[in-house]
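User: For this week's homework, look closely at the record that follows, marking any run of repeated tokens, and judge whether sequence predicts the tokens.
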Amino acid sequence: MTNAKNKVCLWFDDDAEGAAQFYSETFPDSSVGAVHRAPADFPSGNKGDVLTVEFTVLGIACVGLNGGPGVEHNWAFSFQVATADQADTDRYWNAIVSNGGDESQCGWCKDKWGLNWQITPTVLTQAITSSDSAAAKRAFNAMMTMKKIDIAAINAAVRG
């Protein structure tokens, strides 16, 4: 991971290591790498506190920065996780929401650190991008009524 030319840097108040550990336990192709400690006191911490954590989420190189309070994640950035079936959709959604997160609409949820996630079944993506515009519209309208995506309901909408 240290050789990655580009990493996503995510700001955390003070628990980048906890977030990285949660992501590595929840998602495949995820791991925690190096943990770097502050060499001196800084505005939101002390010498020896965890300053940055290198980690991978679903194969994406990231660095978590314990930058302190005052900077919040927003909907402009999210991880979009493509799921193969309802079991994967349920597992990822439930892991995020039941660990202090919040549900939102259309497959979006937020973890306890404020990071946004889209748990998106591939069936949904295929349905709303279908060349059958009537089926795509029905699937889209069904999605708009959901929090966690229900694949059976999306399939039913596609069928009409």
